[in-house]
Amino acid sequence: MLEVLVAFVILAMVLGVLMEIFAGGLRNVGRASETQHAVLLAQSKLAAVGIEVPLAAGEVNGEFDKTYRWQVSIKPYQDNQPTAADDSGLPVPILPVMLFEVEVRVLWGDVDP
Prior knowledge:
Layout: H1 2-48, E1 58-63, E2 68-76, E3 83-85, E4 91-93, E5 100-108
């Protein structure tokens, strides 16, 4: 009788550990789903920069819905691009365009920006 009681105690402890492992796995699946959704929203917002969001230095933010918020930070890109010299000897960039560095952040939950 004592052996059966010990076996039930061991079984209960093992089942408790297994349930905790499964619960942790389910929490991780939920987090992965939220993160994947946030990445897709960030990609869509990045594609909208220059179309819906003006391409100018500064920060813009807003909400996708009640859960997900976004922040877009745009600043001039500082590169070490090679330059050529004009007739007066002054450096002239080879590419006559202005480059920008764009950072998109998607926040959800109780995270403060």
